[in-house]
Amino acid sequence: MPTHSHSSTTSPTSNSEHRVQDHEHAPAESGRGEHSPPGGSWFGRTFPHARADFSASIVVFLVAVPLSLGIAVASGAPILAGLIAAVVGAVVAGLLGGSKLQVSGPAAGLTVIVAELVNTFGWQVTTLITAGAGVLQIVFGLTRLSRFAQAIPPAVVHGMLAGIGATIALGQLNVVFGGQAQTGGVNSIAALPGAIANLSWPALLLGGIVIAIMLTWNRLPAKVTVVPAALVAIVTATVVSLAFADVVRVQLGGSLLDALSLPALPESNWGGVLFGMLTIALIASVESLLSAVAVERMRPGTRTDTDRELLGQGAANTVSGMIGGLPITGVIVRSAANVKAGAETRASAVLHGVWIALFAIVLIGVIELIPMAALAGLLVMMGVGLVKPAEIRTARQHGELAIYAATLLGVVFLNLLEGVVIGLVLAGLMLLWRAVRSRPHLEQADDGSCELVVEGSLSFLAVPRLSRELNSVPRGCDVTVRLVTDYLDHAAYDHLLAWKARHEGTGATVTVIEPEQARRATAPGTGFLTWGEWQGRETEGRASGTLMAGVAAYHDNTSEAILPTMTGLADGQSPSAMMITCADSRVLPHVITHSGPGDVFTVQNVGNLVVGPGTAAAVEFATGTLDVPIVAVCGHSGCGAMQGLLAGGASGDSALGQWLREARPVLRAYENGHPVAVAAARDGFGEADQLAMVNVAMQLEMLRAQDSGAEVLGLFYDIRSARVLVLDEAAGRFVEPRADLGTGVSDLDRIAAGHGHGATAAARRLLKV
């Protein structure tokens, strides 16, 4: 069954669905479709995504204004510099960047270093540094250095952002208590006792209102939370602040046009200026690329030209610095809002910049009503939001928690640059440690023979430990030396060879299993390699050779490890979920749900159809006897059954043709413009994959009609990207089951709540999200 995903084939029902790689440049031939504005057929044909982009731009505008003001405050820059950067980032980076759905502007990740630059050089020189950083980013893009920026260890990047977040939160807490904002984590901590001692109750009330709204907003009904939490928090605090006469408020000193200014040259310390340019260029580039990757994950089918993205970011920073704005990066908060609001092209990002410009020019008086304590509360939440528990768990799982913690503490207690250097040095040391470390251990069997297993890298630095283990082998004892190593240098090899000769001189036999042999023997129990990868396709000319070699490897490497689990399941099963999926050999239910024996009750058939007595009996047994709370139907990309349907295979008299005839209603729904097919085409999936997604939606309807009492869930496995998508029936599209950035609420929770599902816990066990 050949893979056929992410092609540029359009939906059969709407020629306005454009090609995948560049939505905004594709010609539109029809005004039909749910995204066409009501302005007439000509408008719909010319601007097929105008309504979606217009509404998304309003949402992003409402998110961006308070955040831009707060970031300017935290950076120690003129407040209007945040709005200048927001406008430039939206328009320049939006038009020139390589990620069409990413939204750029001033970002919290640069506030600490900008504040240090302002304190050291003053604001006008800092804008020169911003412009110079933009030029460096353009050089990065032209020389295709984006791949190297992405090579920085994630633990260092995430630790840096967490350290910046902690520093912002600590500094702005002083303002919430009625004190002055501080730069640096140490100064902020030192100032907190004084701020608490001289507490200003109005400031605490206003800051507390913002924090409370930001914490609770996403728990409200979906219809309410359409309005951005930051906007609601700032507006509410501003209204409450009108009851107080002595509240410190935002002071703009003029309109957006008055704030435009040229950079100034430094009187001295050109070395520090150049170093500041390089620092901002590197951090802004990394943060922008990380944000672009996140956007790709939020909208499957979206692709980023990373070199072009650096060119766009560089141009935006150059312009922003030249006219008095803050440094610019791709901002994940605004980008996430843009994607969730349904944006289709880069027009949404550009338009939101236009709205910011109009707002800052026309409504100066409104901005100056905002209390500083309210912005401080917003910044506290922004800072806390940069410390992500998911990233801490990931660092721990990969053995990099020390790197993350060291970077975070270095940024908070020293400064950003030194914190990052500490993280990089520690990452290098840990890499060196892993490279030179070997783990030899001797095991003695009941028959008196020994096995010495050597794992890791075996270099000259590991020879002393290896020698100690080798010398502990009893004289005359037969021994197997199993080298499960990724590197074996000459010194270690010579030492092992010399010991082998000496030990064989005692009358014993020594068998050395070298790295490739060891890999073949252990791979079945250590990863997801195929037979061809770990057996080397050595089947000894027998058709059953591959299969039986796998059975032998199972007994050698796996059976004992899972024996306790299987013993516990010997008397019965109690799965948490049921999955109906395709019989395709590439679809592995227990792999894509990260489950083990007894977790998922599985039925696989051609095309994952919920038809026939066999599947009906399985559903009845799972939901009635086993009391499974949720049944999932999982389709996949490149499905041969769906390709057969499209090719007319359901008209044949073969067993396969008769089976596919059961799916004719699915084909008719697809041909009649099923909403899931329209959304799938928009997301870049080809015809067969669109049909496969419609098939999943239709099978869910059939399951509901059976009234089994279990909840249902639709999944789609994109083989090419190895990602699992979940059906959001309210939106009529497949989305990634991932946590919403900054909210801690998953798409799965939102979907379950929207449909009244009560089996979210079982769905989480199924998807392991």
Automatic annotation (TrEMBL):
Membrane spanning residue stretches: 54-73, 80-101, 121-143, 155-179, 199-217, 229-250, 270-295, 315-333, 353-380, 401-433
Membrane topology: Multi-pass membrane protein
EC number of this enzyme: 4.2.1.1
Chain positions covered by the region annotation Disordered: 1-42
PANTHER family: SULFATE TRANSPORTER (PTHR11814)
Similarity section: Belongs to the beta-class carbonic anhydrase family.
Purpose: Catalyzes the reversible hydration of carbon dioxide to form bicarbonate.
Protein name in UniProt: carbonic anhydrase
Species assigned in the record: Pseudonocardia alni subsp. carboxydivorans
